Amino acid sequence: MEKIDLAIIGGGINGLLIAHEYSKNFPDHLVAIFEKEKYSGEHQSSRNSGVLHAGIYYPKESLKRKLCIEGNKLWRTLAKELNVEINPCGKFVVATSDQECLELEKYYHKAKENEVEGIRWADNSELKKLSEFVHIKKGFFSATTAILDVSASLKSLERVLYNKDIPILFQDEVIDIKKEGEGFLLKTTHEKILAERLINAGGLFAVSNRKKLGLTDLEDEWVKGSYLKINRPYYTQSLIYPVPEKNLKGLGVHTSFDNQLQVRFGPNTEEVDNVDYSLSEQLFDEIVPSVLKVFKCLKKQDFGLDYSGIRSKVRYKNQVLKDFWIKGSSCEMGHRVINYVELCGIDSPGLTSAPAIARYVIEIIKKMNDENSL
Predict the structure, then answer these.
(1) Does residue 352 share a domain with residue 247?
(2) Which residue from 21, 72, 152, 333 has the least number of CB within 10 angstroms?
(3) Closest alpha carbon to 100 in 252, 239, 249, 236
(4) In this structure, what CATH number is given to the domain that contains residue 167?
């Protein structure tokens, strides 16, 4: 049976970046990543808008706010290191009515309170330009919002890890986990591995992974979001977001676009209990009215089905958590799992936060090492 220093469950953007950061701090350690799918980032990492968020919407003391702002900055350096493209397009948050103007001002002041860089009110020339495409009364601009080439980032990280002799074991699902002294015995699809440390970065499946360790105090709360694309050129100088509706499990239907300037609108929000990325014609009736409420110069026939994704939220004590759940040596009713770190409920801004999450996890591991040496 092979013994390694660290096993990482999950080959999404967080799993890959954690392995990358871990190798910088522990270069002599043996590390392996176990990924149940054929490719890295098959679920949450690649099925989102690809937006690098600025940190506007999150409570000031939350991990989301802290790690989002830090991650946004780290991606600028990391993208150069990985030789991948970031489109520094920025985004406008727009109000379409007097009532929305009041909400917009609240978000503007929240962004300032969160110390988000590059926030300013849109000037008259910008409002005039936007008014060709958007029903707008007022708006502010977020200069640090950008779009990341996620697919290229994943592929580049795979090459970096390969050159560091860190294998990503595709189609090798962790079926069972047992505590073995202070380490972990992992039974996977193809083998048994003894790991001194374990990181659960399983994304949509992180909660089910932790249940294998007897941790049952979290439950999944999955939210599916789908996107429509349009078959004509549209505004691509910046992203455009509406003022989020209250109690919406997202930021509302907004624009996004890729390197080929394919414009899409989404996502909507739909609670689901299984992984199903299929799209139905019903989405036109669900999403198009929300788009036309904000955006101009579009007709229903301009839209086509694009793709969908599922965001991993979690419930704790019957409450849906609004923040990331990132913990080391997790405990439940006196049951303490040492040498273990878990990442659950890493929904938006998980992509933006990923480099900062990796550093945060490494700090947890260093602290655990100090505690274990006492």
Answers:
(1) no
(2) 333
(3) 252
(4) 3.50.50.60
| Inside any domain, residue 204 | yes
Helix locations, 55-138, DSSP H: 63-82, 98-113, 124-130
pTM of whole model > 0.90?
yes
Convert the pLDDT of each residue in 173-230 to its tens digit: 999 999 988 899 999 999 999 999 999 999 999 999 999 999 999 999 999 999 999 9
Token pair for 39: 């490719």
Which helix (H) or strand (E) segment holds residue 219: the answer is: strand 218-230
Residue whose tokens read 């096993």: 7
Q: Which residues pair with 240 in a beta bridge?
A: 92
SS3 content of the chain, % helix, strand, coil (to 5): 30, 30, 35
- Determine, yes or no, domain membership for 66: no
Q: How many domains does the chain have?
A: 2
Instruction: Encode pLDDT of 285-316 as tens digits.
Output: 999 999 999 999 999 999 999 999 999 999 99
Helix (H, G, I), strand (E, B) or coil at 3: strand
